[in-house]
Amino acid sequence: MIDQIKIALIGNPNTGKSTLFNALTGLNQKVGNFPGVTIDKKSGSTLIDGKNFEIIDLPGIYSLYPKSIDEAIVFDVLSDQKNISHPDLLVVVVDASNLKRNLLLFSQVADLGIPIIMALNMIDIAEKEGIEIDIDGLESKLKIPIIPINARKKVGFTNLKKQFLLAPAIINAEYRLNVMPLAPDLICRIQSELHLSNPTIAYQLAHQYENLKFVTEDQKIRVKELVRDSKFDTQKIQAQETISRYNLINELLFDTVKDRRASGSENYSNRIDRVLTHKFFGLIIFMLLLLGMFQAIYTWSAYPMDLIEELFAWLSTSLKEILPLGFLTNLLTNGIIAGLSGVIVFVPQIAILFAFIAILEDTGYMARVTFMLDKLMKKVGLNGKSVVPLIGSIACAVPAIMAARTIENWKDRIITIMVAPLISCSARLPVYTILIALVVPSKIVLGFVNLQALALMFMYLLSFAAAILAALVMKYLIKAKSRGFFIMELPVYRMPRWNNVLLTIYLRSKTFVLEAGKVIIIVSALLWLAASYGPSKKFEAIESSYQKQKASGINTENLEREMQSQKLEASYAGILGHVIEPAIRPLGFDWKIGIALITSFAAREVFVGTMATIYSVEGDANNSLKLVDKMRQAKNPITGDPVFTLAVSFSLMIFYAFAMQCMSTVAVTYRETKSLKWPIIQFVYMTGLAYVSSLLVYQLMS
Amino acid sequence: MNLAELNIGETAIIESFTDQEMSIKLLEMGCLPGQLVHVNNIAPFGDPMAITISGYKLSLRKKEAATIILKS
């Protein structure tokens, strides 16, 4: 719709802005991109009195001067009238219990000349703490509508929506800061040369022209010259501006707000912090929480995962029965559906992981984890804020890399992105499971510890160690672009908003399926083609010899499998396997494992399926026991020794632990770093590490 | 005296900043000259620290806190 009215929500983090957004849009929301940049744009629609409104949830910020890539988009959208996300009305969500700091951002955006209203949230908390706000007084001073709301309890929404309907008629706020005295000549020059009517925008341009998408290269060069000529000290002036704004705010609040807070009084949040961030118990509690989370990820997901696998197996067989035999049916059932099931089967684990992360974030605990571990992470070149993405990588590196956006420091963020895929993700689990079952006896040691479980834990610990080592190395190799900050709000503890948790699970799972699904469908279809077709001469020869043997009445079931095996060896994938065999021989791998390595570059879990095809076992991961037996019986055709010895299996596991075998991760690293350099480095260093480590393991163990 | 030198449980008033770049970020977060600042606790490994400023809780590294000069 063209004349849909756009309303943008803006505010500090933790003010209830997202709660308000979710309440206004519900399930009518989508995560898209801001034009030209890969920053998630959360938008949704709401219908008021038959009129359709687009609501845009801008990233939570403390000021218009951006500190992280997520924040840079806000000023871009607000200052560029041609931006398709440029709002017709701004709703500034303000936390009444922290008015002064919240009003700083309000004061900055009010100057931009966009119609503006204020949604005053958390008045109940403010009153409880002893803050009295004269809303009418504030309203008459600011000359804009101020709507008291309670986002959690959905109070005040009717009044807020009424204001939406009046959107174009709402006038700009009074009480604005005149920026002119800060740099009079420069502002006038930029205004006249770039034809800007608003002096505040010209002033902001002098500060942040480099980051703005709508400023052309020529204009950037010109502004740069002007800034240099007028000796404009951006930091000094920003500090001056901020202090002037606070003076304005103090004047505004002087007779409208009564603060009766007793100084030094301990609120409940501080009392909780004494336990949860305690020197000793704080860390123990965190460890126990992590343990509980893993336990939940594995145990709670077992049943739904089985169900999904069965569903897809059923779908595949039913489609084979319904559809006519042929190329397309095979491509659909063996290629696409098999690949898709490989993705969707991880949805339960990802949903559970995101449920935990959403709860921990919502309650305010995640900020404390960041706080507690910052020093430790800093030592290895990371940042307290790297903890969340690294923990997330245990489920999947793709959403984890996306979560690294909250890290303001460029270097810390890049290192986090680079090492996150080393952490063993859920896609490696099926590979570990089958290889461990193959060579590690299911024996109880030390009274209660299962030797197989121990081996699995070892693989996870190894992956953590590798990630920390890699981070340490990169700490010295990558040059810092800017100084690292760790100035972060510790929000008060609150009960999780269960609606919000459910919504997060839904949206995250959806994004995962769509983002990873796209890649997996394409790659699995291609791989299926490569594994099913080969040079036609060879294929014809295999076919005809099979037809002859069939005519002579030999057991056809065995024959069929034999033919499939031969065909695979003759297929393009098989040829490729043979080509790379010399390179992987020192690691203990033969050409069949070579095919699995290649197919696994789509997604690691494809390993089990490929092994199943190669060892001509019917079915897939479902009957892995049968596959385990087949693999155990597999013999080297020349020496007659078993293929999967302890050395080969561990070498293979180490390879899967370290190698970058995930298209989705490569794609997301590219998307997040906006350069080919980082995904290439990531691919090369991880795969190189995998090769060398596997070589060492195989040579030492055999 | 600077903020990094303040002990847990102590309160002081902010006087000025020694680092311009850091001061902008601190101002934006509500650390203003004349404002009361209270040290709540310090992270398990000795850094960063958590303070209460203008009614909310903020965490910052000691190195950053050292740029905040307090009134004696």
Write out the strand line-up for the largest beta sheet of chain A, numbering strands in chain order. 2-3-4-1-5-6-8
Overall geometry of chain B: globular
Number of helices of chain B: 2
In this structure, how is the largest beta sheet of chain A organized? Answer: 7 strands, mixed
Biggest interface pair, counts = A-B, 47 and 34 residues
**End-to-end distance of chain A:** 68 Å
Counted beta strands of chain B: 5
Coarse morphology of chain A = elongated
Q: What's the multimeric state?
A: heterodimer
Overall residue-averaged pLDDT value of chain A: 83
Give unreliable regions of chain A as ranges: 617-625
Q: Assess the beta-strand content of chain A as a share of residues.
A: 5-15%
Please state how the strands of the largest beta sheet of chain B are arranged side by side: 4-3-2-1-5
Count of helical segments of chain A? 30
Level of helix content of chain A? 55-70%
Q: What's the end-to-end separation of chain B, in Å?
A: 7 Å
Structural class designation of chain B: alpha+beta
Beta content of chain B comes to 35-45%
Concise synopsis of the structure shown:
By secondary structure, chain A is α/β, with parallel strands linked by helices.
What does the model show?
The complex is a heterodimer of chains A (702) and B (72). Chain A is of the alpha/beta class and 702 residues long. Chain A contains 30 helices and twelve strands. In chain A, strands 2-3-4-1-5-6-8 form a seven-stranded mixed β-sheet, with helices on both faces. Chain B has helices at 20-28, 62-65, and strands at 11-17, 36-42, 49-53, 56-60, 68-70. The interface between A and B is large, with 47 and 34 residues.
Write the layout of secondary structure elements.
The complex is a heterodimer of chains A (702) and B (72).
Chain A: E1 5-11, H1 17-25, E2 29-33, E3 40-48, E4 51-57, H2 69-79, E5 89-95, H3 99-110, E6 116-121, H4 123-129, E7 131-133, H5 135-142, E8 146-148, H6 157-165, H7 184-193, H8 199-208, H9 217-229, H10 234-254, E9 257-259, H11 268-276, H12 281-322, H13 327-344, H14 347-363, H15 365-379, H16 387-392, H17 397-403, H18 410-419, H19 429-439, E10 444-445, E11 449-450, H20 451-477, E12 488-490, H21 498-532, H22 536-551, H23 556-570, H24 572-584, H25 591-599, H26 606-614, H27 624-633, H28 646-658, H29 663-673, H30 677-701
Parallel strand pairs in A: 1-4, 1-5, 5-6, 6-8
Antiparallel strand pairs in A: 2-3, 3-4, 7-9, 10-11
Helix pairs in contact in A: 3-10, 7-8, 12-13, 12-14, 13-21, 14-21, 17-29, 18-20, 19-20, 19-27, 19-28, 20-28, 22-23, 23-24, 24-25, 25-26, 28-30, 29-30
Chain B: E1 11-17, H1 20-28, E2 36-42, E3 49-53, E4 56-60, H2 62-65, E5 68-70
Antiparallel strand pairs in B: 1-2, 1-5, 2-3, 3-4
